[in-house]
């Protein structure tokens, strides 16, 4: 009996690395991808669990990058997709270079949707497969000084329930939305947000926690999971708090301390 195959994007560090570790421990062969050479070192870590690992360095903000990733499967059925790759752009929107915010939109939305569409078509045809998408509680909050990232996560958080409804009569295929809060990953350095209260906070979650929550929710076929009690409370509060108030609160978290 052949081993099952999982694809994990953004797997070189953070939540993606932890998701790939969980998949390897559960006996999945892996295709792991990131847009940096560090993915090769990560792949060697996953091999310790006795699984076959293929590392792919690709830019998932482009359709060509997604196609490169999928070609690495070499025709094997994809049993699990963890669509975790994302990038952020901290700072005032008017000061962000268009190429940077466009890359965030293309990675977090366009590339993610293209990958999901390609994989889900095959899963639906087989009647088997699980998809875990890393959304965020940021999708519920107007992200002052991180507006593009939060906007892309709002898209994902509202897109997925619609997709789940379209697939509700498809047996054997599930889509799960993992919604973490601030997590101790490379995100804040890459988004140029180290000079912010949230970037410097010691209360960010260990990435292993949301990864475990998401992996277990995906295996159970759940529609979504918010990782962490405080994050659950924030999501609940977002439903009754005026947008302007939430935007001001987010400003306190994400506004650069050095405005020069």
Automatic annotation (TrEMBL):
| Protein name in the entry | Oxidoreductase
Database matches in CDD domains: SDR_c
Pfam families for the chain: adh_short
Q: Which superkingdom? A: Bacteria
Question: To which protein family does this belong?
Answer: Belongs to the short-chain dehydrogenases/reductases (SDR) family.
Q: Does the keyword Hydrolase apply?
A: no
Q: Write one Gene Ontology MF term.
A: oxidoreductase activity
- Where does this protein come from, organism-wise? Sphingomonas turrisvirgatae
Q: Which UniProt keywords apply?
A: Oxidoreductase
The record's listing under Gene3D superfamilies reads: NAD(P)-binding Rossmann-like Domain
Q: Which InterPro entries match?
A: NAD(P)-bd_dom_sf (IPR036291), SDR_fam (IPR002347)
